[in-house]
Amino acid sequence: MILETRDISHDFDGLRVLSCVNLSVQRGERHAVIGPNGAGKTTLFNVITGTYAPRSGRVFFKDQDVTGAPPQALVRLGMGRSFQITSTFSRLTAFQNVRMGILGRRGIRFNVFRKVDVMREVTEEAEEVLRRINLTAERNLPARLLSYGKHRALEISLAMSTEPELVLLDEPTAGMSRDETRTAVDLIRRLTEGRTVIIVEHDMDVVFSLADRITVLHHGEILATGSPREIKANQAVRDAYLGEVAD
Amino acid sequence: MTPTALRWIGGSLALAALLAYPYLFGIYFTNVFVTFGIFALYAVSFNLLLGFTGLLSFGHAMFFGAGGYGTALALTHFKSLPLLPALVIGVVAAVALALLLSPLMVRVSGTAFSMLHLAFAQLMYVLALKLRAVTGGEDGIGGFRIPPFRIPGLVNVDMKDPSSFYYFAAAVLGLSVFVLWFVTKTPFGSVMVGLRDNPNRVAYLGFRVPQTKAAVYLLSAGFAGVAGSVYALFQNLVSADALHVLNSFTPVTMTMIGGVGSFFGPILGAAIFGLISELTSRYTERVELVVGLILIIVIMYAPQGFMGLVNAARARARARFAPGGATELAR
Description:
- The structure holds 2 protein chains of 2 kinds.
- Chain A has a 6-stranded mixed β-sheet with strand order 6-7-8-3-9-10, sandwiched between helices. A 4-stranded antiparallel β-sheet of chain A has the order 2-1-4-5, with helices on one face.
- Chain A has 9 helices and 10 strands.
- By secondary structure, chain A is of the alpha/beta class.
- Chain B is mainly alpha-helical.
- Chain B is 74% helix and 3% strand.
- Chain B contains 13 helices and 4 strands.
- Chain B has helices spanning 3-52, 61-77, 83-105, 110-130, 132-135, 162-185, 187-197, 199-203, 209-235, 245-258, 265-280, 287-301, 305-321, and strands spanning 141-142, 149-151, 155-157, 237-238.
- The radius of gyration of chain B is 20 Å and the shape is globular.
- In chain B, 45% of the residues are buried.
- The interface between A and B is large, with 42 and 31 residues.
């Protein structure tokens, strides 16, 4: 088990957002979290990745209690995440964005003795990453000027740049066209190969094609967890959520 | 000619001009230049926070003042203290003040950061006025001994001579600006810019955001301290004016006029600021009025400052002379 949450509850000013969420994810699994808007999916992500501590309950990552640990500590333990709202360095070029991720992974943090431009290994690795996410042509374009699909690809690549064992992707294909979605799913498959993924997604095609297991969140509670087949067949899930999306 | 050769030639010419300056322009303009150099470094250190890390300080004068008071107090109380240690004490004072404030300051940003700096700088200002026994109150500390610049057995230069002081100041300030420029080019410089654009993402790449901010903060304060210390030596005086809110806004204005988006913008801003003060002070005492007017015009018509205009012109020239060449959109 790479990640386990025990009885996670959270509220914002008394408004219950998560109640007693028990989620467990096996190493190597692709786990999708689905549910209607306001079900608490992003809050669950924020609690797991240390944006804030849950009101009650514990989070275990690689059998360590990491409840309330700050983001950078979790990242150094091997966790990574992408955001629902694209979170790149908007004024830096695609290359500089990718390079920032590489500096993070290599732990080059307080080096003030060498120019970053002459660090050949870093530059080469960044170029390689740009090739992999098909952004070589946009190398010198500021992130904010990238097309939506490319910007999202950069976002996913930043989430993966620290080579996390567990990565949480928050609606990676939100707002994408069919074509862009297909490219993104393909990219996610390639970049997350051999890693554990937790993904929040509204697009059921994406969910059922990517996920090994699915957790359905509804009003802050887990409605069901199971294989895609089990979830599709689950009556409660159909009533609460799938019915309105599928069909 | 290769760009490298051009750079060497340009650099050599600039160095020669710097060396010949006191002989070409006389004492008065030599002193004008020293003042420019001090404020250029001060503005660059300020822009390390604003332009590179996205933190707007309305109280940078407290570090400038700490540098000045540190050096002045050290020279007043230690009778045989040499020049460089006196300078170092000023810098240490500024860094110590920053260290004291940093646990709070690295956890705030935006308006809170600006206003807290305004508040603490005002506190320092009032302390400097009230603690007369230490700071000399309104009169400040003046007439302290300026030690000669001495390397035993090698050089012994009297700092009371304006042109000697010019070389000393130019070396210290020039080296400081170079160090800061170099830092912005290192991985740490990249992380600074990352903090400006998206501190959240920086944290999720495994960087410790508060500690990184603290490092930038200390660096910026330390070099503001260098500027303040050289200023105190240059004037042979440091008074509460150094901590005054107007002195906190000086680097803000210089940076806005010169261009917040570039390393050299604040230096250009300091030059323009100095030029305006120099010209207008011949006709009126209301120098701020003219500077303010120019600031408004710049903000309205050239929000990236003069350096923004320069860069835009360069981009246009490049686009014209390099057909089909890539236009560099990013800074």
